[in-house]
Amino acid sequence: xxxxxxxxxxxxxPSSEYRLGPENSSAGxxxxxxxxxxxxxxxRKVVCAAGHEEIICVVKGALSVRKGKSSFSVTAGxxxxxxxxxxxxxxxxxxxxxxxxxxxxxxxxxxRPAPAEKRPAAPEPESIVQAxxxxxxxxxxxxxxxxxxxxxxxxxxx
Length: 158
Known about the structure:
The protein is mainly β. The protein has one domain: Jelly Rolls, CATH 2.60.120. The chain is built from 2 helices and 9 strands; from the N terminus they run αβββββββββα. The chain has a 5-stranded antiparallel sheet with strand order 1-2-9-4-7. It has a 4-stranded antiparallel sheet with strand order 3-8-5-6, with no helix packed on it. Strand 5 and strand 6 form a beta hairpin. The protein is globular and about 40 Å long. The termini are far apart.
């Protein structure tokens, strides 16, 4: 077993991110990203590659997440889902550093390939980029709270 000191590994990267995945572990088709965004830095572009999706959890501070013309804030202990092909921009909120972890994997549709089919490699983390103008015409996202069951099956259980 190997221990990865993620804060130090992220600090040694120009993007302040460290990606732990199949290329440096026996993780298979999953990967994890540890990242820091300091106040005053440009928005960080996050792109979910074809066949992949991520769950991003804020560990410290708060992030403003923007997709197209919509944005929302996520604070420590909260998480959100980024689906295949989505492009998001992450920025700190306030004067505090934000720390996040993203867990990525093949999405459900891509997770059922024929046995002989080779799965794509996990995407490399994006570098820091300036966020585009809010006039982009990307699809907007839905913001929900998990206070109520989401499926009929969950409603039957509750």
